[in-house]
Design goal:
Layout: H1 10-13, H2 21-24, E1 30-31, H3 59-69, E2 76-79, H4 81-93, E3 100-103, H5 110-117, E4 121-124, H6 135-143, E5 149-155, H7 167-176, E6 182-186, E7 208-213, E8 226-229, H8 232-241, H9 249-258, H10 261-285, E9 291-294, E10 301-306, H11 309-318, E11 321-322, E12 324-325, E13 335-339, H12 343-354
Parallel strand pairs: 1-11, 3-4, 3-5, 5-6, 6-7
Antiparallel strand pairs: 2-8, 7-8, 9-10, 10-13, 12-13
């Protein structure tokens, strides 16, 4: 071991980092592996105050997002992407080497990575056979006498399976876990199915937290801007832990423009186009012989199970189409996640599959 590595915390020495799409990389012209938007808008920047530290929580940005999400301004915290929100929640509510988070795999990998980084244990309640949340099992884990679970992360729509939350079962879970744990609904993809958001429940349930991002439907993955929605008591606690200047001024400017009336109109049109492209892809996939299962279509992606995903993945790579391979994940054998792109990119995807 090097003279430096042994100085790191033991949990970090043993940690396997989250393999993001950018870390995995690939070679090609069609990038459908990171659930990014295929287009980008233009924004104007005012550079006259770049010599000054930014506001802790820029008023114009918080106001714009609160209005968009239909919550109170005091119920919004802006973070560096939803990933920072995940970490701040763990650092705020979980004692290292004592408390734990609960996740429902297969799901987004950063919940576990953030917990491991913070020295917090991870409990798992697998998704049900249909990949919906097993609400009763989650409740049992949180409410048992010796439970150390402080946070439950529920991704909805779930990445990568696309499953959504059952509202009435979520409400029952919130009621059962009141005073015991926070239920975190990760709504990174909610713009693609906005009627399924649980944001309106925040007013009634102090233990509900919702994380959001501008990376997907708003096509702003590069600026790293996310939001945490919760009652004021939760936001106050998170504000004690988050960095003093979490929102760079250029990020706040761009995000505020994206949340303007004109910016929202662009986002809504983008969602309409991508949802339509998703439907076209989904319909066409049903007639392709090498496809055995298509998972729920709720986000800007489709998880697809193939007869032989190794062969399919290789064919995509040969044609310069970069996808996300999930075949090595539990219960997702032969599965590949396809980001929804332009109509031309979807046609290139289908052309490759039809050639097999």
């Amino acid at each position: 071991m090097s003279s430096i590595k042994h100085l790191a915390r033991e949990t970090v020495q043993a940690l396997t980092p989250y393999l993001s799409a950018r870390r995995i990389g690939g070679t090609g012209d069609v990038w459908l592996n990171a659930n990014e938007s295929p287009d980008c808008s233009e924004y104007q920047l005012d550079s006259s105050k770049l010599n000054r530290y930014p506001e802790f929580q820029p008023h114009s940005l918080i106001t714009a997002y609160a209005d968009y999400a239909a919550v109170k301004h005091s119920q919004v915290l802006s973070t560096r992407g939803a990933d920072e929100s995940i970490e701040i929640l763990i650092r705020t509510f979980c004692e290292p080497s004592a408390d734990s988070i609960l996740i429902c795999p297969p799901t987004y990998g950063m919940y576990a990575i953030s917990a491991e980084t913070c020295g917090v244990a991870i409990e798992e309640v697998a998704l049900a056979d249909n990949f919906d949340v097993d609400y009763q099992a989650v409740e049992n884990s949180v409410t048992k006498v010796d439970s150390q679970v402080k946070l439950v992360f529920l991704c909805a729509p779930n990445n990568p399976t696309g499953n959504i939350l059952d509202r009435q079962k979520l409400i029952a879970l919130l009621q059962a876990t009141k005073g015991k744990a926070l239920i975190v609904a990760d709504e990174a993809y909610i713009e693609f199915c906005p009627k399924l958001s649980q944001a309106d429940l925040i007013a009634q349930y102090e233990n509900l937290v919702i994380t959001r991002t501008l990376s997907k439907a708003f096509a702003l993955a590069a600026i790293r801007c996310g939001f945490t929605l919760a009652q004021e008591s939760v936001i106050e606690m998170l504000s004690k832990v988050i960095a003093p200047y979490p929102v760079p001024a250029p990020v706040a400017q761009i995000a505020t423009q994206a949340l303007s009336k004109d910016g929202l109109a662009v986002m809504f049109e983008r969602v309409k186009i991508l949802n339509n492209n998703r439907q076209l892809l989904q319909d066409a996939l049903q007639d392709i012989d090498c496809v055995t299962e298509i998972f729920q279509a709720t986000g800007n992606f489709l998880l697809v199970r193939f007869k032989d995903s190794v062969k399919v993945f290789a064919a995509f790579a040969k044609n310069g189409i970069i996808m996300r391979d999930f075949a090595n994940k539990p219960r997702l054998k032969n599965c590949i996640r396809i980001t929804i792109g332009t109509e031309a990119e979807m046609q290139a995807t289908l052309t490759t599959l039809n050639s097999l």
